[in-house]
Amino acid sequence: MRAEAPNLRDERILIFAPTGRDAALTARFLGDANLLPVTCESVEHLCLEISEGAGLVFLTGEALTPEAMQCLVGVLAEQPSWSDIPVVILTSGGGGTPTNVSALSTLSEAGNVTLIERPVRVMTLMSAFKSALRARRHQYDVRERLEAERRTLREAEEANRMKDEFLATLSHELRTPLTAILGWARMLSGGQLDDASTARALETIERNAKAQSQLIEDILDVSRVITGKLRLEVQPVNLAAVIEAAINAVIPAADAKGIRLQRVLDTGASMVSGDPARLQQVIWNLLSNAIKFTPRDGRVQVRLERTGSHVEITVADDGQGIGLDILPHVFERFRQADSSTTRAHGGLGLGLAIVRHLVEMHGGTVRAESCGEGQGATFTIKLPLVAMRALDARRASDAERVHRRASGGVPFNCPSELEGLRLLVVDDEADTRTLLKAVLEQCGASVVAVASAGEALAALKETRPDVLISDLGMPGEDGYAFIKKVRALPAEDGGQTPSAALTAYARVEDRMKVLRAGFQIHIPKPVEPAELIAVVANLAGRTAV
After folding, report:
1. pLDDT in tens, 199-257
2. Cβ-contact 91, 104 below 8 angstroms
3. Secondary structure of residue 86 in the 3-state scheme
4. CB of 490 within 8 A of CB of 516?
5. Number of helices and strands (H, E) in the chain?
6. What was the pLDDT predicted at 141?
7. How many CB atoms lie within 10 A of CB 416?
């Protein structure tokens, strides 16, 4: 199988035959052979098309005028080093006139020329064309290999440059706090400092030791990322509390620069599944960056809000901003906008790379936005909401449940009402399906869980469930369209199956839309297991009296 040419333009056969019907006839039989003929009206047109790219050039002897020769020799000489465009010339028998002989000799020296004498059979001409095209395609293959090698070489050189810059920066960043620690330690050991100087020395040593410790932690985290050894301790996490903790950690740095820290937190929509320590590390990194690159008396804002089935954390500042050439690379390891010895800010360029990896490990995304230098920067993290609050594995005792505080979760106990119920669960998120299935089956129900509306319709007719539980936001066909199709079915095919919408869309208008679409009830995520069980029992008509 031949390698494909880069594009159709490079497959074209350019035809310049100024007399007779040679051009029209050649174009016709080339078209019949599924090749790409292009008839040129003048030598200038031909030379322009050659410079645009072509598979081969076909000329007749009558085209080789002095003007045409000058143009052709010039444009062929301008071809890149990898290109040797084939030129097929149809000559008169006997070699042509002396002028043509001279022209052919000149053209042969300038390019890859094949001569074919008249009269010629069409099959012979076609064979010559196809052979020339194969040679031309080989040239394209050589070009692609050369470009790939150059690209690889550039990437290796860039990687080596970045590695050298990183090692130089690492040496500088580790030596800087070490200089302060050793210097003040020697002065303390000399016993010549007064009380105020001693306090300042101890404070400086502690501050620089913490800075060095953070650098080492960042390096170790990157090492864990590269080797795949970074692990999460996953549990239900209240993001509002995590953000507050991160803010409290950076308040001293913000106060020192007179930076206003603003928070806008939707505390009612902040439950995610993750590692609280690592999530706090993510927020701390973004806040520290924002404070570092925001001038004195600037502003940094943290926002937490629900968007559909996700929560978004936004850290925005009105500081230095990010250059548009750097913006696509801010999350790459060792990448810094300024790695020179005159840079205004320290650091190894690892923080944002760690942020991206940790966010992605939590099933989320992070993006950076900036209108350019001096126009501030905004970092937005998007994390999926938990579908259901976690079950309490420790199961409090009866006495503890009696005295449970109002802020605690609802105790989960499987009632007998779900025994033997047939349930259908529809959700495109695999983790959510697994969780719902486990909770419901733990209470004695028989559960079929599917990932799409199409699968659900088939399962509905086959299993005839007692209750249907469906997500709303699904790719391809959402829950609204799905329930409308269900309600259009006859009762004997499940058209009247009691249904609940389980979704992160929790506004009043969302609930109204759910009910109008055909669901009996709307359950916002994250849902308590006990609430889910009660809803299912109610829809099945098995609510205890």
Report:
1. 888 888 887 787 777 777 777 777 777 777 778 888 888 899 899 988 988 888 888 88
2. yes
3. strand
4. no
5. 15, 17
6. 87
7. 11
Q: How far apart are the first and last CA of the chain?
A: 75
SS3 152: helix
Dihedral angle over CA of 514, 515, 517, 520, nearest 10: 100
Whole-angstrom Cα distance, residue 290 to residue 311?
Answer: 21
Residues in the chain, overall count: 545
Q: Are residues 14 and 50 in contact, defined by beta-carbon separation less than 8 angstroms?
A: yes
308: region left, alpha or beta (phi > 0 left; psi from -120 to 50 alpha): left
Q: How far is CA 421 from CA 125, 456, 492, 530, 537, in A?
A: 78, 17, 18, 16, 9
pLDDT at 310: 85
Residues 388, 455, 461, CA angle at the centre, nearest 5°?
Answer: 105
Tokens of 230: 């970074």
Cα R_g (the chain), whole angstroms = 36
* 385-401 pLDDT per residue, tens: 876 555 443 343 343 33
pLDDT at 159: 76
Distance from C-alpha of 459 to C-alpha of 422, rounded to nearest angstrom: 11
State which residues of the chain have pLDDT below 70: 1-7, 93-104, 110, 162, 165-176, 269-270, 334-349, 387-413, 415, 431, 504-508, 526, 543-545
What does DSSP assign to residue 385?
B
SS (HEC) of 388-420 = ECCCCCCCCCHHHHHCCCCCCCCCCCCCHHHCC
115/106 Cα distance (integer angstroms): 13
Cα 171–Cα 175–Cα 178 angle in degrees, nearest 5: 155
DSSP summary character for residue 229: -
In degrees and rounded to multiples of 5, residue 307 shows phi and psi of -135, 100
Is the distance from CB of 460 to CB of 494 less than 8 angstroms?
yes
- Residue 343 is predicted with a pLDDT of 38
- The dihedral sign for the CA sequence 245, 246, 249, 253: negative
> At 484, phi and psi to the nearest 5?
-65, -40
How far apart are the C-alpha atoms of 312 and 381, rounded to whole Å? 5
What is the per-residue DSSP string for 440-501?
HHHTT-EEEEESSHHHHHHHHHHH--SEEEE-S--SSS-HHHHHHHHHTS-GGGTTT--EEE
Q: What's the confidence (pLDDT) of residue 368?
A: 93
Residues with Cβ within 8 Å of residue 423, at least 6 apart in sequence: 440, 445, 446, 447, 448, 465, 466, 467, 468, 469, 536
- Residue 191 tokens read as 């016993």
